[in-house]
Protein backbone atom coordinates (compact mmCIF):
# COMPACT_ATOMS: atom_id res chain seq x y z
CA UNK A 1 0.00 0.00 0.00
CA UNK A 2 1.15 3.51 -0.77
CA UNK A 3 0.20 6.47 1.32
CA UNK A 4 -1.68 9.19 -0.44
CA UNK A 5 -3.14 12.34 1.02
CA UNK A 6 -6.21 12.88 -1.14
CA UNK A 7 -9.44 11.38 0.14
CA UNK A 8 -13.01 11.37 -1.10
CA UNK A 9 -15.86 12.29 1.23
CA UNK A 10 -18.60 9.83 0.24
CA UNK A 11 -21.22 12.03 1.86
CA UNK A 12 -20.41 14.86 -0.50
CA UNK A 13 -19.42 12.97 -3.67
CA UNK A 14 -22.18 13.17 -6.29
CA UNK A 15 -20.56 10.59 -8.56
CA UNK A 16 -20.28 13.03 -11.48
CA UNK A 17 -17.06 11.41 -12.78
CA UNK A 18 -15.31 14.70 -13.60
CA UNK A 19 -12.35 13.62 -11.43
CA UNK A 20 -12.19 10.25 -13.15
CA UNK A 21 -11.89 11.85 -16.58
CA UNK A 22 -9.23 14.38 -15.59
CA UNK A 23 -6.93 12.11 -13.55
CA UNK A 24 -3.56 11.91 -15.38
CA UNK A 25 -2.77 8.43 -14.04
CA UNK A 26 -6.28 6.98 -14.50
CA UNK A 27 -6.44 6.33 -10.76
CA UNK A 28 -10.16 6.95 -10.23
CA UNK A 29 -13.16 4.67 -10.80
CA UNK A 30 -16.86 5.14 -10.05
CA UNK A 31 -18.41 2.47 -7.82
CA UNK A 32 -21.92 2.54 -6.34
CA UNK A 33 -22.33 6.13 -7.39
CA UNK A 34 -19.13 7.38 -5.70
CA UNK A 35 -15.62 8.08 -6.91
CA UNK A 36 -12.90 5.84 -5.50
CA UNK A 37 -9.15 6.31 -5.68
CA UNK A 38 -6.79 3.44 -6.54
CA UNK A 39 -4.07 3.96 -3.96
CA UNK A 40 -1.20 2.49 -5.93
CA UNK A 41 -1.84 4.79 -8.87
CA UNK A 42 -2.56 8.10 -7.17
CA UNK A 43 0.37 10.54 -7.21
CA UNK A 44 -1.43 13.23 -5.20
CA UNK A 45 -1.21 15.79 -7.99
CA UNK A 46 -4.58 17.22 -6.98
CA UNK A 47 -6.13 17.51 -10.45
CA UNK A 48 -9.25 15.78 -9.13
CA UNK A 49 -9.51 18.21 -6.22
CA UNK A 50 -9.58 21.14 -8.61
CA UNK A 51 -12.14 19.45 -10.89
CA UNK A 52 -14.62 18.43 -8.18
CA UNK A 53 -17.82 20.53 -8.27
CA UNK A 54 -19.06 19.17 -4.92
CA UNK A 55 -15.95 19.92 -2.84
CA UNK A 56 -15.85 16.26 -1.93
CA UNK A 57 -12.12 15.65 -2.38
CA UNK A 58 -10.16 16.72 0.65
CA UNK A 59 -6.66 16.52 1.98
CA UNK A 60 -6.05 14.74 5.24
CA UNK A 61 -4.22 16.96 7.72
CA UNK A 62 -3.22 16.73 11.34
CA UNK A 63 -5.39 18.20 14.07
CA UNK A 64 -4.35 21.80 14.70
CA UNK A 65 -4.64 21.22 18.46
CA UNK A 66 -1.50 19.09 18.20
CA UNK A 67 0.43 22.37 17.91
CA UNK A 68 -0.27 23.08 21.59
CA UNK A 69 1.14 19.74 22.72
CA UNK A 70 4.72 20.89 22.25
CA UNK A 71 6.35 23.68 24.27
CA UNK A 72 8.49 24.40 21.21
CA UNK A 73 6.14 24.11 18.28
CA UNK A 74 7.69 25.23 15.01
CA UNK A 75 5.79 26.36 11.92
CA UNK A 76 7.81 25.49 8.84
CA UNK A 77 6.17 27.70 6.24
CA UNK A 78 6.80 27.79 2.50
CA UNK A 79 7.50 31.14 0.82
CA UNK A 80 4.21 30.85 -1.10
CA UNK A 81 2.42 31.22 2.24
CA UNK A 82 3.39 34.89 2.52
CA UNK A 83 2.37 35.27 -1.13
CA UNK A 84 -1.21 34.48 -0.10
CA UNK A 85 -1.75 37.70 1.84
CA UNK A 86 -2.90 41.07 0.48
CA UNK A 87 -0.17 43.66 0.11
CA UNK A 88 -1.38 45.78 3.04
CA UNK A 89 -0.68 43.08 5.59
CA UNK A 90 2.86 43.29 6.89
CA UNK A 91 4.98 40.18 7.24
CA UNK A 92 5.66 40.97 10.90
CA UNK A 93 1.91 41.00 11.48
CA UNK A 94 1.54 37.55 9.93
CA UNK A 95 4.34 36.24 12.09
CA UNK A 96 2.74 37.73 15.19
CA UNK A 97 -0.55 36.02 14.32
CA UNK A 98 1.24 32.68 13.92
CA UNK A 99 2.69 33.19 17.37
CA UNK A 100 -0.71 34.03 18.82
CA UNK A 101 -2.05 30.85 17.26
CA UNK A 102 0.40 28.80 19.30
CA UNK A 103 3.66 28.54 17.36
CA UNK A 104 6.78 29.41 19.31
CA UNK A 105 8.99 29.53 16.24
CA UNK A 106 8.35 30.32 12.60
CA UNK A 107 10.82 29.27 9.95
CA UNK A 108 10.65 29.64 6.17
CA UNK A 109 11.60 26.35 4.54
CA UNK A 110 13.32 28.04 1.62
CA UNK A 111 16.06 29.14 4.02
CA UNK A 112 17.61 25.80 3.11
CA UNK A 113 17.62 26.43 -0.62
CA UNK A 114 21.30 27.41 -0.65
CA UNK A 115 22.24 24.08 0.94
CA UNK A 116 19.80 22.21 -1.32
CA UNK A 117 21.30 23.79 -4.44
CA UNK A 118 24.79 23.06 -3.21
CA UNK A 119 24.02 19.36 -2.74
CA UNK A 120 22.38 19.20 -6.17
CA UNK A 121 25.43 20.76 -7.82
CA UNK A 122 27.77 18.32 -6.10
CA UNK A 123 25.63 15.41 -7.26
CA UNK A 124 25.45 16.81 -10.79
CA UNK A 125 29.22 17.10 -11.03
CA UNK A 126 29.69 13.47 -10.05
CA UNK A 127 26.82 11.98 -12.04
CA UNK A 128 27.06 13.37 -15.53
CA UNK A 129 26.41 9.89 -16.88
CA UNK A 130 22.88 10.14 -15.49
CA UNK A 131 21.94 13.24 -17.45
CA UNK A 132 19.40 14.63 -17.92
CA UNK A 133 19.20 15.01 -14.17
CA UNK A 134 15.68 15.57 -12.94
CA UNK A 135 14.93 17.68 -9.89
CA UNK A 136 13.24 15.83 -7.05
CA UNK A 137 11.71 19.05 -5.74
CA UNK A 138 8.11 18.26 -6.75
CA UNK A 139 6.99 15.05 -5.03
CA UNK A 140 4.07 14.54 -7.43
CA UNK A 141 6.58 14.42 -10.28
CA UNK A 142 8.79 11.91 -8.45
CA UNK A 143 5.77 9.64 -8.03
CA UNK A 144 4.68 10.18 -11.63
CA UNK A 145 8.08 9.01 -12.84
CA UNK A 146 8.01 6.01 -10.50
CA UNK A 147 4.72 4.70 -11.80
CA UNK A 148 4.61 5.89 -15.41
CA UNK A 149 8.22 6.41 -16.50
CA UNK A 150 10.15 3.75 -14.58
CA UNK A 151 13.11 3.90 -16.98
CA UNK A 152 13.78 7.47 -15.80
CA UNK A 153 13.98 6.89 -12.02
CA UNK A 154 17.79 6.87 -12.11
CA UNK A 155 17.73 10.38 -13.55
CA UNK A 156 16.10 11.79 -10.43
CA UNK A 157 18.54 13.63 -8.15
CA UNK A 158 18.33 11.79 -4.80
CA UNK A 159 18.39 14.78 -2.48
CA UNK A 160 16.09 15.85 0.33
CA UNK A 161 13.72 18.73 -0.31
CA UNK A 162 14.50 22.15 1.24
CA UNK A 163 11.72 21.37 3.71
CA UNK A 164 13.57 18.39 5.18
CA UNK A 165 16.89 20.22 5.27
CA UNK A 166 15.21 23.11 7.10
CA UNK A 167 13.65 20.69 9.54
CA UNK A 168 17.06 19.14 10.28
CA UNK A 169 18.52 22.60 10.79
CA UNK A 170 15.78 23.77 13.15
CA UNK A 171 16.08 20.59 15.17
CA UNK A 172 19.84 20.97 15.38
CA UNK A 173 19.75 24.61 16.54
CA UNK A 174 17.02 24.02 19.11
CA UNK A 175 18.55 20.92 20.62
CA UNK A 176 22.21 21.95 20.49
CA UNK A 177 22.22 25.72 20.80
CA UNK A 178 19.24 26.08 23.10
CA UNK A 179 19.35 22.71 24.82
CA UNK A 180 15.67 21.96 24.15
CA UNK A 181 14.86 18.23 24.50
CA UNK A 182 13.67 16.66 21.24
CA UNK A 183 10.32 15.58 22.72
CA UNK A 184 9.46 19.21 23.47
CA UNK A 185 9.92 20.18 19.82
CA UNK A 186 7.02 19.79 17.39
CA UNK A 187 7.85 20.42 13.75
CA UNK A 188 4.77 21.37 11.73
CA UNK A 189 4.93 21.76 8.01
CA UNK A 190 2.49 24.13 6.39
CA UNK A 191 1.87 22.43 3.08
CA UNK A 192 0.76 24.05 -0.16
CA UNK A 193 -0.24 20.72 -1.74
CA UNK A 194 -1.26 17.10 -1.22
CA UNK A 195 1.89 15.64 -2.73
CA UNK A 196 4.08 17.32 -0.11
CA UNK A 197 1.98 15.70 2.62
CA UNK A 198 2.41 12.28 1.11
CA UNK A 199 6.14 13.01 0.83
CA UNK A 200 6.25 13.75 4.56
CA UNK A 201 4.09 10.79 5.61
CA UNK A 202 5.70 8.28 3.25
CA UNK A 203 8.95 9.76 1.95
CA UNK A 204 10.51 8.25 -1.17
CA UNK A 205 14.07 7.08 -0.53
CA UNK A 206 13.90 7.64 3.25
CA UNK A 207 12.64 5.53 6.12
CA UNK A 208 10.68 8.23 7.84
CA UNK A 209 10.47 11.98 8.02
CA UNK A 210 11.33 14.03 11.11
CA UNK A 211 8.25 16.24 10.65
CA UNK A 212 5.72 15.81 13.48
CA UNK A 213 2.63 17.16 11.77
CA UNK A 214 1.24 18.67 8.61
CA UNK A 215 -1.13 21.64 8.37
CA UNK A 216 -2.90 22.62 5.20
CA UNK A 217 -1.91 26.05 3.91
CA UNK A 218 -5.45 27.16 3.10
CA UNK A 219 -6.76 26.38 6.57
CA UNK A 220 -3.82 28.16 8.22
CA UNK A 221 -4.36 31.14 5.93
CA UNK A 222 -7.92 31.38 7.23
CA UNK A 223 -6.78 31.15 10.83
CA UNK A 224 -4.09 33.79 10.43
CA UNK A 225 -6.24 36.16 8.40
CA UNK A 226 -9.10 35.87 10.90
CA UNK A 227 -6.74 36.54 13.78
CA UNK A 228 -5.41 39.67 12.13
CA UNK A 229 -8.95 40.93 11.40
CA UNK A 230 -10.00 40.19 15.01
CA UNK A 231 -7.07 42.05 16.43
CA UNK A 232 -7.84 45.10 14.36
CA UNK A 233 -5.63 47.89 13.11
CA UNK A 234 -4.37 49.27 16.40
CA UNK A 235 -3.30 45.92 17.85
CA UNK A 236 0.19 46.14 19.21
CA UNK A 237 2.02 42.94 18.54
CA UNK A 238 5.33 41.64 19.59
CA UNK A 239 7.80 41.91 16.75
CA UNK A 240 9.43 38.61 15.85
CA UNK A 241 12.47 38.51 13.69
CA UNK A 242 11.13 38.28 10.16
CA UNK A 243 12.70 36.16 7.45
CA UNK A 244 15.58 37.25 5.29
CA UNK A 245 15.43 34.89 2.36
CA UNK A 246 17.71 35.44 -0.60
CA UNK A 247 16.10 36.32 -3.91
CA UNK A 248 17.14 32.92 -5.26
CA UNK A 249 15.45 31.18 -2.35
CA UNK A 250 12.20 33.14 -2.69
CA UNK A 251 11.96 32.34 -6.40
CA UNK A 252 13.01 28.69 -6.09
CA UNK A 253 9.49 27.30 -5.76
CA UNK A 254 8.20 29.17 -8.81
CA UNK A 255 8.61 27.96 -12.40
CA UNK A 256 12.22 28.47 -13.54
CA UNK A 257 13.24 28.94 -9.90
CA UNK A 258 15.67 26.05 -9.97
CA UNK A 259 16.55 26.30 -13.64
CA UNK A 260 17.67 29.94 -13.44
CA UNK A 261 20.38 29.02 -10.95
CA UNK A 262 21.35 25.57 -12.24
CA UNK A 263 24.75 25.10 -13.82
CA UNK A 264 23.58 23.13 -16.85
CA UNK A 265 24.34 24.24 -20.38
CA UNK A 266 20.96 23.06 -21.55
CA UNK A 267 17.97 22.78 -19.29
CA UNK A 268 14.20 23.07 -19.31
CA UNK A 269 11.66 24.18 -16.75
CA UNK A 270 8.27 22.59 -17.37
CA UNK A 271 5.15 23.14 -15.30
CA UNK A 272 1.71 21.54 -15.57
CA UNK A 273 1.43 17.78 -15.39
CA UNK A 274 0.24 17.31 -19.00
CA UNK A 275 3.21 19.32 -20.27
CA UNK A 276 5.53 17.25 -18.13
CA UNK A 277 4.06 13.98 -19.45
CA UNK A 278 4.39 15.15 -23.06
CA UNK A 279 8.03 15.90 -22.46
CA UNK A 280 8.82 12.71 -20.54
CA UNK A 281 7.27 10.66 -23.36
CA UNK A 282 9.79 12.19 -25.75
CA UNK A 283 12.63 11.92 -23.29
CA UNK A 284 11.96 8.24 -22.73
CA UNK A 285 12.28 7.60 -26.46
CA UNK A 286 15.67 9.33 -26.51
CA UNK A 287 14.16 11.93 -28.82
CA UNK A 288 15.59 14.83 -26.83
CA UNK A 289 19.36 14.99 -26.74
CA UNK A 290 21.90 17.00 -24.81
CA UNK A 291 19.66 18.03 -21.91
CA UNK A 292 21.53 18.28 -18.63
CA UNK A 293 18.89 19.38 -16.14
CA UNK A 294 15.11 19.31 -15.90
CA UNK A 295 12.94 21.23 -13.47
CA UNK A 296 9.53 19.56 -13.61
CA UNK A 297 6.55 20.72 -11.59
CA UNK A 298 3.06 19.24 -11.48
CA UNK A 299 1.20 22.52 -11.00
CA UNK A 300 0.80 25.31 -13.52
CA UNK A 301 2.99 28.18 -12.19
CA UNK A 302 4.56 25.64 -9.81
CA UNK A 303 3.86 26.18 -6.12
CA UNK A 304 2.09 29.52 -6.69
CA UNK A 305 -0.56 27.42 -8.41
CA UNK A 306 -0.56 24.74 -5.73
CA UNK A 307 -3.76 23.08 -4.67
CA UNK A 308 -3.97 24.74 -1.25
CA UNK A 309 -3.00 28.18 -2.49
CA UNK A 310 -6.19 30.16 -2.02
CA UNK A 311 -4.80 33.15 -3.90
CA UNK A 312 -4.78 33.40 -7.69
CA UNK A 313 -1.54 31.82 -8.93
CA UNK A 314 -0.42 34.90 -10.85
CA UNK A 315 -1.14 37.35 -8.05
CA UNK A 316 0.71 35.10 -5.61
CA UNK A 317 3.60 34.69 -8.05
CA UNK A 318 3.97 38.41 -8.60
CA UNK A 319 4.03 39.10 -4.85
CA UNK A 320 6.86 36.64 -4.55
CA UNK A 321 8.67 38.31 -7.43
CA UNK A 322 8.20 41.71 -5.78
CA UNK A 323 9.67 40.30 -2.58
CA UNK A 324 12.56 38.75 -4.49
CA UNK A 325 13.31 42.06 -6.25
CA UNK A 326 13.53 43.80 -2.89
CA UNK A 327 15.76 41.06 -1.52
CA UNK A 328 18.01 41.27 -4.57
CA UNK A 329 18.33 45.03 -4.12
CA UNK A 330 19.26 44.62 -0.48
CA UNK A 331 21.85 42.05 -1.49
CA UNK A 332 23.27 44.39 -4.15
CA UNK A 333 23.47 47.28 -1.70
CA UNK A 334 25.23 45.06 0.77
CA UNK A 335 22.52 45.74 3.35
CA UNK A 336 22.24 42.06 4.16
CA UNK A 337 24.85 39.44 3.92
CA UNK A 338 23.32 36.54 2.01
CA UNK A 339 21.72 34.17 4.45
CA UNK A 340 24.70 32.88 6.40
CA UNK A 341 22.40 31.48 9.00
CA UNK A 342 22.94 27.84 8.14
CA UNK A 343 26.70 28.18 7.66
CA UNK A 344 27.53 26.74 11.09
CA UNK A 345 25.76 23.48 10.31
CA UNK A 346 26.31 23.41 6.59
CA UNK A 347 28.66 20.43 6.56
CA UNK A 348 26.27 18.41 8.69
CA UNK A 349 23.30 19.34 6.50
CA UNK A 350 25.10 18.60 3.24
CA UNK A 351 26.22 15.26 4.58
CA UNK A 352 22.69 14.30 5.57
CA UNK A 353 20.80 15.71 2.61
CA UNK A 354 21.05 12.66 0.37
CA UNK A 355 18.39 9.99 0.09
CA UNK A 356 18.41 6.49 -1.37
CA UNK A 357 17.94 6.23 -5.14
CA UNK A 358 14.29 6.32 -6.21
CA UNK A 359 12.81 2.92 -7.10
CA UNK A 360 10.37 2.29 -9.94
CA UNK A 361 6.90 0.93 -9.22
CA UNK A 362 5.25 0.75 -12.61
CA UNK A 363 1.47 0.97 -12.58
CA UNK A 364 1.20 -0.25 -16.14
CA UNK A 365 2.62 -3.72 -15.57
CA UNK A 366 -0.21 -6.24 -15.74
CA UNK A 367 1.54 -9.03 -13.85
CA UNK A 368 4.88 -9.62 -12.16
CA UNK A 369 5.25 -12.72 -14.26
CA UNK A 370 5.99 -11.84 -17.86
CA UNK A 371 4.23 -14.87 -19.31
CA UNK A 372 1.08 -14.14 -17.30
CA UNK A 373 1.23 -10.47 -18.24
CA UNK A 374 1.40 -11.56 -21.86
CA UNK A 375 -1.73 -13.69 -21.51
CA UNK A 376 -3.56 -10.85 -19.84
CA UNK A 377 -2.56 -8.41 -22.54
CA UNK A 378 -3.82 -10.77 -25.21
CA UNK A 379 -7.18 -10.93 -23.42
CA UNK A 380 -7.31 -7.16 -23.04
CA UNK A 381 -6.64 -6.66 -26.73
CA UNK A 382 -9.39 -9.12 -27.58
CA UNK A 383 -11.88 -7.40 -25.28
CA UNK A 384 -10.95 -4.02 -26.71
CA UNK A 385 -12.25 -5.13 -30.09
CA UNK A 386 -15.70 -5.59 -28.53
CA UNK A 387 -15.67 -2.12 -26.96
CA UNK A 388 -16.79 1.01 -28.83
CA UNK A 389 -13.66 3.11 -28.05
CA UNK A 390 -15.79 6.18 -27.30
CA UNK A 391 -14.51 6.48 -23.72
CA UNK A 392 -17.95 7.48 -22.46
CA UNK A 393 -17.14 6.49 -18.88
CA UNK A 394 -20.53 4.84 -18.27
CA UNK A 395 -18.77 1.68 -17.09
CA UNK A 396 -17.13 3.64 -14.28
CA UNK A 397 -13.67 3.59 -15.86
CA UNK A 398 -12.14 6.56 -17.72
CA UNK A 399 -11.49 4.84 -21.05
CA UNK A 400 -12.51 1.69 -22.91
CA UNK A 401 -8.93 0.52 -22.58
CA UNK A 402 -8.80 0.98 -18.80
CA UNK A 403 -12.16 -0.81 -18.58
CA UNK A 404 -10.82 -3.76 -20.56
CA UNK A 405 -7.81 -3.85 -18.25
CA UNK A 406 -10.07 -3.78 -15.16
CA UNK A 407 -12.20 -6.59 -16.58
CA UNK A 408 -9.16 -8.79 -17.12
CA UNK A 409 -7.13 -7.89 -14.02
CA UNK A 410 -9.97 -7.56 -11.52
CA UNK A 411 -12.33 -10.12 -13.05
CA UNK A 412 -15.13 -7.61 -13.50
CA UNK A 413 -18.17 -8.25 -15.66
CA UNK A 414 -18.19 -6.89 -19.21
CA UNK A 415 -21.90 -6.03 -18.80
CA UNK A 416 -21.00 -2.68 -17.23
CA UNK A 417 -20.39 -1.44 -20.77
CA UNK A 418 -23.73 -0.13 -22.09
CA UNK A 419 -22.76 -0.83 -25.68
CA UNK A 420 -21.97 -4.42 -24.82
CA UNK A 421 -25.29 -4.62 -22.94
CA UNK A 422 -27.22 -3.59 -26.06
CA UNK A 423 -25.29 -6.15 -28.01
CA UNK A 424 -26.31 -8.88 -25.53
CA UNK A 425 -29.92 -7.63 -25.49
CA UNK A 426 -30.12 -8.08 -29.23
CA UNK A 427 -28.91 -11.63 -28.77
CA UNK A 428 -31.45 -12.09 -25.95
CA UNK A 429 -28.53 -12.98 -23.76
CA UNK A 430 -29.25 -10.58 -20.92
CA UNK A 431 -32.35 -9.57 -18.96
CA UNK A 432 -33.38 -6.02 -18.17
CA UNK A 433 -32.81 -6.78 -14.48
CA UNK A 434 -29.24 -7.83 -15.15
CA UNK A 435 -28.64 -4.66 -17.17
CA UNK A 436 -29.95 -2.52 -14.32
CA UNK A 437 -27.90 -4.38 -11.73
CA UNK A 438 -24.74 -3.78 -13.78
CA UNK A 439 -25.49 -0.06 -14.12
CA UNK A 440 -26.36 0.25 -10.43
CA UNK A 441 -23.05 -1.24 -9.42
CA UNK A 442 -21.42 1.75 -11.09
CA UNK A 443 -23.81 4.62 -10.58
CA UNK A 444 -25.63 3.61 -7.41
CA UNK A 445 -29.16 2.41 -6.93
CA UNK A 446 -31.08 5.40 -8.13
CA UNK A 447 -28.91 8.00 -9.82
CA UNK A 448 -31.82 10.14 -11.06
CA UNK A 449 -33.89 10.02 -7.88
CA UNK A 450 -37.54 9.15 -7.30
CA UNK A 451 -39.02 11.81 -9.52
CA UNK A 452 -41.16 10.63 -12.41
CA UNK A 453 -39.30 11.51 -15.55
CA UNK A 454 -40.96 14.31 -17.52
CA UNK A 455 -42.71 13.29 -20.69
CA UNK A 456 -40.86 14.40 -23.74
CA UNK A 457 -42.69 14.67 -27.01
CA UNK B 1 0.83 -10.24 -30.58
CA UNK B 2 1.01 -8.62 -33.94
CA UNK B 3 1.01 -4.89 -34.66
CA UNK B 4 1.27 -3.12 -38.00
CA UNK B 5 1.98 0.49 -38.87
CA UNK B 6 2.30 2.38 -42.12
CA UNK B 7 5.14 4.84 -42.59
CA UNK B 8 4.65 7.71 -45.04
CA UNK B 9 7.54 9.33 -46.89
CA UNK B 10 8.57 12.67 -45.42
CA UNK B 11 6.03 12.44 -42.59
CA UNK B 12 8.41 13.37 -39.79
CA UNK B 13 5.48 14.58 -37.70
CA UNK B 14 4.40 11.01 -37.12
CA UNK B 15 7.85 9.55 -36.61
CA UNK B 16 7.69 7.53 -33.42
CA UNK B 17 4.11 6.30 -33.72
CA UNK B 18 5.13 2.67 -33.83
CA UNK B 19 7.83 2.97 -31.18
CA UNK B 20 5.52 4.81 -28.75
CA UNK B 21 2.84 2.16 -29.10
CA UNK B 22 5.35 -0.66 -28.69
CA UNK B 23 6.72 1.10 -25.62
CA UNK B 24 3.32 1.08 -23.98
CA UNK B 25 2.80 -2.61 -24.70
CA UNK B 26 6.18 -3.54 -23.24
CA UNK B 27 5.48 -1.50 -20.11
CA UNK B 28 2.26 -3.44 -19.68
CA UNK B 29 4.20 -6.66 -19.93
CA UNK B 30 6.59 -5.46 -17.28
CA UNK B 31 9.66 -5.78 -19.48
CA UNK B 32 12.80 -4.32 -17.86
CA UNK B 33 12.84 -0.53 -18.48
CA UNK B 34 16.38 -0.59 -19.88
CA UNK B 35 15.39 -3.23 -22.43
CA UNK B 36 12.31 -1.21 -23.36
CA UNK B 37 14.55 1.74 -23.95
CA UNK B 38 16.75 -0.26 -26.35
CA UNK B 39 13.72 -1.48 -28.30
CA UNK B 40 12.23 1.99 -28.55
CA UNK B 41 15.47 3.67 -29.61
CA UNK B 42 16.15 1.07 -32.31
CA UNK B 43 12.61 1.09 -33.68
CA UNK B 44 12.42 4.89 -33.68
CA UNK B 45 15.70 5.00 -35.58
CA UNK B 46 14.34 2.55 -38.17
CA UNK B 47 11.10 4.48 -38.51
CA UNK B 48 12.97 7.73 -39.14
CA UNK B 49 15.14 5.98 -41.73
CA UNK B 50 12.13 4.81 -43.71
CA UNK B 51 10.64 8.32 -43.55
CA UNK B 52 13.85 10.15 -44.43
CA UNK B 53 15.45 7.91 -47.05
CA UNK B 54 12.67 5.91 -48.62
CA UNK B 55 9.22 6.41 -50.12
CA UNK B 56 7.47 5.04 -47.08
CA UNK B 57 6.88 1.52 -45.93
CA UNK B 58 5.52 -0.74 -43.26
CA UNK B 59 6.43 -1.59 -39.69
CA UNK B 60 5.52 -5.10 -38.57
CA UNK B 61 5.90 -5.89 -34.90
CA UNK B 62 5.52 -9.31 -33.31
CA UNK B 63 5.69 -9.55 -29.56
CA UNK B 64 6.05 -12.85 -27.80
CA UNK B 65 6.37 -13.59 -24.10
CA UNK B 66 10.16 -13.59 -24.27
CA UNK B 67 11.15 -11.43 -27.23
CA UNK B 68 10.12 -8.83 -29.77
CA UNK B 69 10.64 -9.02 -33.49
CA UNK B 70 10.45 -5.85 -35.59
CA UNK B 71 10.50 -5.58 -39.34
CA UNK B 72 10.69 -2.21 -41.06
CA UNK B 73 10.28 -2.70 -44.79
CA UNK B 74 10.47 0.31 -47.09
CA UNK B 75 10.07 0.98 -50.77
CA UNK B 76 13.01 3.12 -51.72
CA UNK B 77 16.40 3.54 -53.34
CA UNK B 78 17.92 0.66 -51.38
CA UNK B 79 21.41 0.54 -49.90
CA UNK B 80 24.17 -0.33 -52.42
CA UNK B 81 26.81 -1.12 -49.78
CA UNK B 82 25.34 -2.31 -46.49
CA UNK B 83 28.72 -2.70 -44.78
CA UNK B 84 29.49 0.96 -45.52
CA UNK B 85 26.08 2.06 -44.24
CA UNK B 86 26.75 0.22 -40.98
CA UNK B 87 29.69 2.56 -40.26
CA UNK B 88 29.12 5.40 -37.83
CA UNK B 89 28.88 8.79 -39.51
CA UNK B 90 28.20 7.50 -43.01
CA UNK B 91 25.05 9.03 -44.42
CA UNK B 92 23.43 9.64 -47.76
CA UNK B 93 20.72 11.90 -46.34
CA UNK B 94 19.70 14.87 -48.43
CA UNK B 95 20.74 18.31 -47.07
CA UNK B 96 17.15 19.28 -46.28
CA UNK B 97 16.78 16.14 -44.16
CA UNK B 98 20.02 16.93 -42.32
CA UNK B 99 18.71 20.43 -41.66
CA UNK B 100 15.88 18.82 -39.71
CA UNK B 101 18.37 17.18 -37.40
CA UNK B 102 18.30 13.77 -39.02
CA UNK B 103 20.89 12.00 -41.18
CA UNK B 104 23.90 12.07 -38.87
CA UNK B 105 24.90 8.62 -40.09
CA UNK B 106 24.13 7.01 -36.78
CA UNK B 107 20.98 5.17 -37.78
CA UNK B 108 22.06 1.61 -38.54
CA UNK B 109 24.98 1.61 -36.08
CA UNK B 110 22.61 2.79 -33.36
CA UNK B 111 20.15 0.02 -34.18
CA UNK B 112 22.95 -2.53 -34.09
CA UNK B 113 24.01 -1.28 -30.66
CA UNK B 114 20.54 -1.66 -29.19
CA UNK B 115 19.24 -4.96 -30.54
CA UNK B 116 20.24 -8.58 -30.06
CA UNK B 117 19.83 -9.52 -33.70
CA UNK B 118 19.93 -7.24 -36.75
CA UNK B 119 19.47 -8.29 -40.34
CA UNK B 120 19.50 -5.78 -43.19
CA UNK B 121 18.58 -6.82 -46.69
CA UNK B 122 18.36 -4.40 -49.57
CA UNK B 123 17.87 -4.26 -53.30
CA UNK B 124 18.93 -1.10 -55.11
CA UNK B 125 15.94 0.64 -56.67
CA UNK B 126 13.45 -1.55 -54.80
CA UNK B 127 13.82 -1.07 -51.09
CA UNK B 128 15.34 -2.05 -47.79
CA UNK B 129 14.15 -4.39 -45.07
CA UNK B 130 15.52 -4.10 -41.55
CA UNK B 131 14.75 -6.94 -39.21
CA UNK B 132 15.51 -6.59 -35.52
CA UNK B 133 15.06 -8.81 -32.52
CA UNK B 134 15.39 -8.07 -28.81
CA UNK B 135 15.16 -10.65 -26.05
CA UNK B 136 13.33 -9.72 -22.87
CA UNK B 137 15.51 -11.75 -20.53
Topology of helices and strands:
The complex is a heterodimer of chains A (about 450) and B (about 140).
Chain A: E1 6-8, H1 18-22, E2 28-31, E3 34-37, H2 47-51, E4 57-59, E5 72-77, H3 79-82, H4 91-100, E6 105-108, H5 113-126, E7 133-134, H6 139-148, H7 162-177, E8 185-191, H8 194-201, E9 213-216, H9 217-231, H10 247-251, E10 267-271, H11 273-284, E11 293-297, H12 313-332, H13 346-351, H14 370-384, H15 400-409, H16 418-426, H17 432-443
Parallel strand pairs in A: 5-6, 5-8, 7-11, 8-9, 10-11
Antiparallel strand pairs in A: 1-4, 2-3
Chain B: E1 2-7, H1 17-29, H2 33-53, E2 57-63, E3 67-75, H3 82-85, H4 95-99, H5 107-114, E4 117-123, E5 127-135
Antiparallel strand pairs in B: 1-2, 2-3, 3-5, 4-5
Provide structural commentary:
The complex is a heterodimer of chains A (457) and B (137). With 457 residues, chain A is α/β, with parallel strands linked by helices. Chain A is 39% helix and 10% strand. Chain A has 17 helices and eleven strands. Chain A has helices spanning 18-22, 47-51, 79-82, 91-100, 113-126, 139-148, 162-177, 194-201, 217-231, 247-251, 273-284, 313-332, 346-351, 370-384, 400-409, 418-426, 432-443; strands at 6-8, 28-31, 34-37, 57-59, 72-77, 105-108, 133-134, 185-191, 213-216, 267-271, 293-297. In chain A, α4 crosses α9 (217-231) and α14 crosses α15. The longest helix of chain A has 20 residues, at 313-332. Chain B has a single domain, classed as Heat Shock Protein 90 (2-Layer Sandwich), CATH 3.30.565.10. Chain B contains five helices and five strands, in the order βααββαααββ. Chain B has helices at residues 17-29, 33-53, 82-85, 95-99, 107-114; strands spanning 2-7, 57-63, 67-75, 117-123, 127-135. Chain B has a five-stranded antiparallel β-sheet with strand order 1-2-3-5-4, with helices on one face. Chain B is globular.
